[in-house]
Here is the input.
Amino acid sequence: MVFLVLWLLLIGYAVFLAPSGSGGIEFGALLLGDWEGVDPLVLAVFNSLGIFPLVFLTLLIPNDRLRWPAWPFALVSFGVGAFSLLLYFAFGTKPPEKKRRGPETLHRILRSKAWLLFVAAISIINFLTVLRGFSLEAYAEAFRTSSLVSVMTVDWLVLWGLSIYSIYRFEPSAKFKPLAILPVVGPILVLLFNRKRPS
Here is the structure.
């Protein structure tokens, strides 16, 4: 019920509360690499919305035992972020199946050292872009005037919370779980530090 309420609140925010203007920041321009004049923090948050789905593929697919298959929701999250993942968590309340879905090869790839290091690396590199200098005032102004920045910020916060929740739910015996609070890269570091050596 909590996740369904969050989903409705997220939709309500995007439709009724987010600013209606663009604030000079267009989705198409960001997607095509036209970043001139865009604050580095806005850019880092935007780019991390493309990395979060990789994090959730890594978290959910190897633990895919809930009512609905995880992969469609994780894939759709590349386009709509938390709007799809909240539905997965809202309706995945059936007791877990003993056997997880999907090919074992895919599970091994998503928990391989190479994959985890790849996702961790692009997460860290993305946030290093803020070292070019960013302005909280500029970000706040963009949040107030740009529908894109406003919705993606709220979406990012929900994805961050879901990634922390996923670690605690699906990896209850993992060590270093508090690392999951680190945005984007944290859950991957938890998996990396708890990775079992192949037998």
The mean pLDDT is 91. The chain is about 65% helix and 0% strand.
